[in-house]
Amino acid sequence: MSVLAVLSIFIIFGTVQTAAAHVDWVDISIDHAYYYDLDGDGASDDVLVNMTCSVISGIKNPQRSEYRVKLTLPSGLAYLVIIEVVGKYNSLFMSLKMFDTATEPGWYNVKVEAFSMGVQRGYSTASYDFDPPDKQGTGQPHAELIAYVL
After folding, report:
1. Mean of the per-residue pLDDT values of the chain
2. How far is residue 35's CA from residue 46's CA, in Å, rounded to a whole number?
3. What is the arrangement of strands in the sheet containing 46-55, beginning at the earlier edge strand?
4. With 0-12 CB in 10 A as exposed, 13-18 as middle and 19+ as buried, what is 119?
5. What are the pLDDT digits (tens) for 109-130?
6. Residue 10 pLDDT > 60, yes or no?
């Protein structure tokens, strides 16, 4: 059985560099991404992203991996959540709540980049588009993550 030792979250605002090499190591399924009123402030300005990440058959399970979840608004403003996972796993489900981030009309993009560290390095990515409401929200953007090993 895999053990998930450490999980940490960092939020960064601005642009993001992508990896140059593309060696798939994990199947990323963005199961759901949409806007809701998750914090109960009366505004549907929060984004929920559910994803399942499964290590590809034949790939050695990483001891350490990093997931970068980037939410890009129609204006180009981007929110980045970096999730560092220490411990081996075959499959990992994550539910990420990004509060007060759906603040403008138009199409939003969620991009997930996954990096494996250690002996067998790899990079995988997935993307998902959705269209939230036309109103602006309140509060400061922040995130909450729920993750468990499958």
Report:
1. 81
2. 5
3. 26-36, 46-55, 91-99, 142-149
4. exposed
5. 999 999 998 767 899 999 999 8
6. no
Distances in Å between the Cα of 110 and the Cα atoms of 48, 69, 86, 87 are 10, 7, 23, 25
Rounded-to-integer distance, Cα 101 and Cα 123, Å: 27
Residue 122, C-beta contacts closer than 8 angstroms, at least 6 positions apart = 23, 24, 25, 26, 59, 62, 114, 115, 116
Q: Per residue in 48-88, pLDDT tens?
A: 999 999 999 988 888 899 999 999 999 999 999 999 999 99
**Is residue 32 a contact partner of residue 116, using CB atoms and an 8 Å limit?**
no
Spatial distance between the Cα atoms of 67 and 84, rounded to a whole number of angstroms: 6
User: Which parts of 64-107 are beta strand (E)?
Assistant: 64-72, 78-86, 91-99
Residue-range domains of the chain with CATH: 6-149 (2.60.40.3880)
Note whether 102 and 143 are within 8 A (CB). Answer: no
